[in-house]
Amino acid sequence: MAEPGRLGNSPRTILDELHRIQSTDVVLPLADNLRRELRIRCVARPDKAQALLLDRLGLRLPERLRPPPAIEV
């Protein structure tokens, strides 16, 4: 893990830092029908090195990712 401000110029270092940013799905059953579920995709907050890198690249992570469009069956 690189220290903030010491990310270097190596593309591998930059890709490694970006690779460590994770997202996760929170899955909750619905009270009215236990066969259905609510799925919320969340993005972990970046650490200092990742936040610095994202800032230098002019990128901003979303607080929550949009779910895929619902498919009617």
Give a quick summary of the entry:
By secondary structure, this protein is of the alpha+beta class. The chain is built from 2 helices and 2 strands; from the N terminus they run αββα. Helices cover 26% and strands 26% of the residues.
Account of the 3D structure:
With 73 residues, this protein is of the alpha+beta class. The protein has two helices and two strands, in the order H-E-E-H. A two-stranded antiparallel sheet has the order 1-2.
Topology:
Elements (H helix, E strand, L loop, with lengths): L10 H9 L3 E8 L2 E11 L4 H10 L16
Antiparallel strand pairs: 1-2
Using the CA coordinates, give the radius of gyration. 17 Å
Helix content: 25-40%
Relative strand content: 25-35%
User: How many strand segments?
Assistant: 2
**Could you give a short account of the major beta sheet?**
2 strands, antiparallel
**What pattern of helices and strands is seen along the backbone?**
HEEH
Q: List the quaternary state of the chains.
A: single chain
Task: Provide the descriptors you would attach to this structure in a database record.
alpha+beta; 73 residues; 26% strand
